[in-house]
């Protein structure tokens, strides 16, 4: 990312305003999650179905979901069950590559991924899950091979600066962002797994040629590159960009901390298509894992109403279990004009990355 002397950035490519917003959000969020963790303990023990002790064994989780999002709920599982949980955090694609490199020597028991693409990349390493576990979530949130299960849902949206963008300017489709009026005003994170999943959906829905043309047209509008969703939302509110391609829940985490004066809002594209894709974060158990029993116990906990309420109420994601209410700030999932697509079509991460590299969008 080029440094602008009139808009200085730090080592992470963030302006001071953006960095302050992210820092404030993290501090407030972690404090709130600490309170939730303290008050949920007894309920979580019941969800695990046992009392914590020192003889419950261990579990190794590779998490493509960030610690700020899932760390508190993983810690609750560990405290409630007595299982000694070790977590390796990283990008979903990075961890998928690590798993493939480690092969049968991997210490991982569970792969908790940000998107179906990462899980699909290591599908051959995952073991089949029990039918009763799979049936907890709707069919669209399940692996077609029954070797991973959806944990929570995230919708793709366009986040926009509600002070700089008028209602008349708001795009109705992703294609509207190729208009020259958006030159220099778009933020995206092409190295992020969720963005790449959206591109995989484009390839499946639009075809290779149309997807390639779309990405080239966006490139012509000189989008600003960010490492992930959080800094895009912060940059949009700060006026560094006017629109960004992100997952829906990041905005609501900011609004919770910053209040209604936070100068960004989400646009759920009514036209549907890849720009309204509802993705699942999911998890699978590594075949031959040393701690299979604890791995299954962990997945069942993530699909308990206790954990699902955490995702709905604290990270603003869509719960996948009946009887858990979506947060009041989020439109119900049946009101999102999501893309009707088989999750198997999102598994070709390698093909999507090859396209992005060919266009010079990622290194």
Which consecutive residue ranges, at least 5 long each, have pLDDT under 50? 1-13, 19-43
| Average pLDDT score | 88
Cα-to-Cα separation, first versus last residue: 13 Å
Structural class: alpha/beta
- Number of alpha- plus pi-helical segments: 12
| Shape field | globular
- How many strands in all? 9
**What profile does the largest beta sheet have?**
9 strands, mixed
What kind of oligomer do you see?
A: single chain
| Percent range of helical residues | 40-55%
From the alpha-carbon coordinates, what is the Rg to the nearest angstrom? 20 Å
Beta strand %: 5-15%
SSE order: HEHEHEHHEEHHEHEHEEHHH
Q: Would you mind describing this structure in some detail?
A:
- The protein is α/β, with parallel strands linked by helices and 363 residues long.
- The chain has helices at residues 16-48, 67-81, 92-102, 116-121, 131-134, 193-206, 208-220, 229-238, 249-258, 292-302, 305-314, 349-358, and strands spanning 58-63, 84-89, 110-113, 149-160, 186-188, 224-225, 243-247, 265-267, 278-285.
- Strands 1, 2, 3, 4, 5, 6, 7, 8 and 9 form a nine-stranded mixed beta sheet that branches.
- Helix 2 (67-81) links the parallel strand 1 (58-63) and strand 2 (84-89).
- Helix 1 runs parallel beside helix 2 (67-81), helix 6 (193-206) packs across helix 7 (208-220) and helix 6 crosses helix 12.
- The chain is globular and about 60 Å long.
- The two termini are 13 Å apart.
- 47% of the residues are buried.
């Amino acid at each position: 990312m080029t440094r602008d002397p009139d808009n200085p950035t730090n080592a992470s490519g963030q302006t001071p305003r953006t960095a302050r917003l992210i820092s404030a959000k993290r501090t407030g969020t972690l404090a709130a999650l600490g309170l939730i963790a303290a008050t949920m303990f007894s309920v979580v023990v019941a969800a695990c179905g046992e009392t914590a002790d020192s003889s419950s064994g261990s579990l190794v989780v590779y998490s493509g979901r960030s610690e700020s999002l899932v760390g508190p709920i993983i810690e609750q599982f560990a405290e409630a069950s007595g299982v000694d949980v070790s977590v390796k955090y990283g990008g979903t694609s990075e961890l998928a590559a690590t798993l493939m490199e480690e092969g049968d020597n991997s210490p991982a028991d569970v792969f908790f991924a940000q998107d179906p693409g990462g899980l699909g990349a290591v599908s051959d390493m995952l073991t089949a899950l029990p039918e009763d576990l799979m049936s907890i979530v709707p069919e669209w949130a399940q692996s077609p091979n029954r070797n991973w299960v959806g944990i929570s849902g995230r919708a793709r949206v366009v986040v926009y600066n509600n002070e700089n963008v008028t209602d008349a300017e708001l795009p109705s489709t992703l294609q509207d962002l190729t208009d020259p009026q958006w030159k220099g005003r778009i933020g995206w994170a092409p190295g992020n797994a969720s963005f790449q999943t959206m591109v995989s959906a484009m390839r499946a829905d639009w075809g290779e040629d149309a997807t390639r043309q779309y990405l080239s047209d966006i490139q012509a509008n000189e989008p600003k590159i960010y490492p992930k969703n959080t800094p895009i939302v912060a940059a949009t509110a700060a006026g560094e960009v006017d629109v960004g391609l992100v997952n829906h829940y990041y905005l609501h985490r900011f609004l919770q901390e910053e209040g209604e004066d936070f100068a960004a809002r989400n646009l759920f594209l009514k036209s549907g298509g890849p720009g309204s894709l509802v993705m699942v974060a999911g998890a699978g158990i590594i075949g031959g894992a040393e701690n299979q029993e604890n791995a299954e116990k962990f997945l069942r906990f993530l699909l308990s109403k206790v954990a699902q309420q955490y995702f709905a109420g604290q990270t603003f994601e869509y719960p996948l279990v009946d009887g858990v209410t979506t947060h009041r700030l989020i439109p119900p999932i049946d009101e999102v004009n999501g893309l009707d697509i088989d999750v198997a079509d999102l598994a070709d991460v390698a093909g999507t990355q090859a396209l992005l590299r060919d266009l010079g969008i990622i290194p």
